[in-house]
Amino acid sequence: MLSTRALPAAIPKTNQMAINHNRNLNRRGFLRSTGSAALLSAGHRVENPSDTKGIDRLACNSWPFRAYFDTPQMHEYRNAEYSLLTQAEFPEFLADHFNIHNVEFLPQHFADTDSSTIKQVKAGLKKANSRCCNLMGLELPGGVFTQTDDHKNVTKEAERWVAVALALGSPSITIALSGEGPTNSQTAAHNLAPFVEVAHAQGVKVLFHNDDIKRESAETLTSVIRQLGTAQTGTCPDFGNFATKSAAFALDTLRMLAPHASNICHAKDGIADNGKFYPDDFAASMKVMRDAGFKGIYSLEFEGLGAPLEGVRKLMKLTLEHLS
User: Fold this and answer.
1) Pairing relation of β-strands 270-273 and 264-267?
2) Which residues of the chain have pLDDT under 70?
3) Count of C-beta atoms within a 10 Å radius of residue 201
4) In terms of Cα–Cα distance, which of 25, 1, 37, 30 is closest to 13?
């Protein structure tokens, strides 16, 4: 895992076509893949259905398109063969290519959080007739597993990112359980409490995500949620992040997290690791979410092999089939 960066916190990810998920690291510790598949330009627009049933329940985040972005925290993953995108342009990009109008932003794809930058992103949402449905994957300075009573930095980050969420109309912020130290849910909850307090006071829900198989197990996440309160916190479950262990394990994880999902989950059909694709049981995953009574957004997070535009398009088709 990379050390926490200050402004904004980073989740390192690869910018190559064959997405490479190392089973010994979480997605914040991906290595670059050396795939050489043909790259598609962001300027190439495709025909999209305008009346597809269920499309209003789809979102997409900027992670599958990380090679299009060039920000201080993600510069190393920029690929010049892609057209350059900014967060302000991303909503229109999704609307043009997929007719998706729910946008999930990664904090690492903001060049900064100055008011002028956030105003541009807000204007981009308005131009595309879109809305922000989540801020995904915020890492706190120092992580959450080192015991401390000095929470000034956590409170500062909470005030900064809750202000961004409010400006963009996001109902939630997903926080990564990152950092050094033993994986202890009591320590994590203690360190996260000031952030949750600031967010809850402004009506923003704090979510947690099964990304790191060691630090963000279903057991750890649900324990943190119970301690912090289910009204204030919840999950953003991911279908396939743990499929490298087994599809059954990924599904068992989802079963534990789905009851705590309020407004968003990540739909994917599996994950790639060192050139090999590990599928999840997508149909069973969708059933788990339905059985849990989930009525929220399915954010398409393509992490397979191949070009992201085509990968997201196929994942979108698959998801819509199960929503119809």
Assistant:
1) unpaired
2) 1-52
3) 11
4) 30
Q: What is the pLDDT of residue 178?
A: 96
Residue whose tokens read 């998706």: 100
Domains of the chain in sequence order: 27-38+57-323 (3.20.20.150)
**Encoded tokens for 152:** 């000034």
pLDDT digit string, tens, across residues 140-150: 989 999 999 98
Radius of gyration of the chain (CA): 18
Residue 39 token pair: 């790259």
| Cβ neighbours of 96 (radius 10 Å) | 16
Q: Could you tell me the two tokens for 238?
A: 């991911």
List the end-to-end C-alpha distance of the chain, in Å, as a whole number.
39
